[in-house]
Q: What sequence folds into this?
């Protein structure tokens, strides 16, 4: 399997830690986890991409769907650890300003605790 | 410096249609992250070469290796796996006219991936946004201008996030302003997705804008290969003729001409 996903609770944030490649065949795994969290109206949700080597447009679409579902119940959806390469894809698709993006998990958790 | 491995290797590639030899032994190495332009006059074999690369036609001889796999001799299953990560922008767009633009873009994702329809819908809109067609998902291809159809076809070619994008005469039939817009789009996509882009064209303006390296095909052979700068500085008569847009001198062998008129087949 080229994608590993772990969900951990870092009070008060539910962090989804993604490692590997998020592509056409592995992104359904990430979607399944995000759908389960948003169905339970979890907030805040943080998706940490620090260990993601590659994220294609299906990965982007999965994150957009997660964000949208979270916004429906006025939850907070954050991303962290975006590499320069992945950031370029976000920029080209004009998604940089759509997501709340933090440099690290710690920075995201701190922003919630403030 | 680490030596780069080619993503596409072509060796001694030959193709004949009956007695007419189109490709006479092509050798090419194309690298990831580069925009490689195959340039040549009409009938020089460049579109035939492209059809071999995307598996639409089998060559008469030689080999094509893409990402380490021999695509000429691969079985159907192996070839399908490679093709999934290759996008193709056809000269005429090749959109399904009975489907909306959005359905055209979504089709390869529906056919070849386990993605949820919700994910596919977002991806489709993302691709249309990338090519400047956001809001056109529900239009039918016939409702689009030539340039917009080309952009829509490009969105479909990008649907599966290809490693290699093949473009057959991307600016053919477009006015110069729309054509340069397509070229700029190709440049932006390459910068963002680090794709290998292989473009077949005879448009010099396009070549100078997008090419990292150029191969000039002439008479079924690679006549020149090099960077844009090397191309411009080349003293090869065929390259000069192309650059200076000079027509062929009329050279007819009288005996061959008479024979061709008398031949029965």
A:
């Amino acid at each position: 399997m080229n994608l590993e996903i772990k969900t951990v609770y870092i009070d008060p944030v539910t962090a989804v830690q993604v490692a590997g490649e998020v592509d056409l065949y592995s992104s359904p795994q990430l979607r399944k986890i995000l759908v389960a969290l948003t169905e339970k109206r979890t907030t805040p949700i943080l998706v940490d991409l620090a260990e993601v080597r590659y994220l294609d447009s299906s990965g982007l679409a999965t994150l957009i769907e997660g964000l949208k579902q979270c916004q429906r119940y006025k939850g907070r959806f954050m991303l962290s650890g975006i590499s320069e390469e992945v950031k370029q894809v976000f920029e080209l698709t004009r998604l940089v300003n759509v997501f709340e993006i933090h440099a690290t998990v710690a920075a995201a958790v701190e922003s919630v605790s403030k | 410096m680490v030596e780069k491995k080619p993503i596409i290797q072509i060796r001694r590639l030959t193709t004949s249609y009956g007695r007419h030899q189109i490709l006479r032994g092509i050798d090419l190495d194309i690298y990831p992250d580069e925009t490689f332009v195959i340039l040549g006059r009409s009938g020089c074999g460049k579109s035939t070469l492209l059809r071999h690369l995307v598996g639409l036609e089998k060559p008469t001889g030689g080999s094509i290796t893409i990402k380490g796999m021999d695509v000429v001799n691969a079985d159907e299953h192996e070839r399908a796996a490679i093709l999934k990560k290759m996008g193709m922008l056809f000269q005429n767009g090749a959109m399904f006219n009975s489907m909306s633009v959005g359905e055209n873009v979504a089709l390869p994702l529906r056919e070849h991936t386990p993605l949820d329809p919700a994910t596919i819908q977002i991806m489709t809109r993302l691709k249309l946004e990338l090519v400047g067609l956001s809001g056109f998902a529900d239009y039918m291809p016939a409702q689009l201008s030539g340039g917009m159809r080309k952009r829509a076809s490009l969105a479909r070619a990008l649907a599966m996030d290809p490693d290699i994008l093949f473009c057959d005469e991307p600016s053919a039939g477009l006015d110069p302003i729309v054509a340069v817009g397509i070229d700029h789009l190709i440049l932006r996509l390459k910068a963002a997705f680090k794709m290998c882009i292989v473009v077949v064209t005879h448009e010099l303006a396009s070549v100078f804008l997008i090419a990292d390296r150029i191969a000039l095909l002439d008479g079924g052979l690679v006549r020149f290969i090099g960077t844009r700068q090397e191309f411009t500085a080349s003293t090869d008569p065929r390259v000069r003729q192309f650059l200076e847009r000079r027509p062929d001198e009329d050279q007819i062998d009288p005996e061959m001409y008479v024979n061709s008129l008398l031949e029965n087949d």
Remarks:
- The mean pLDDT of chain B is 88.
- The interface with chain A takes residues 109, 112-116, 118-120, 122-123, 126-127, 129-130, 160-161, 188-189, 191-194 of chain B (CB under 8 Å).
- The CA atoms of residues 91 and 193 of chain B lie 22 Å apart.
- Chain B is about 40% helix and 25% strand.
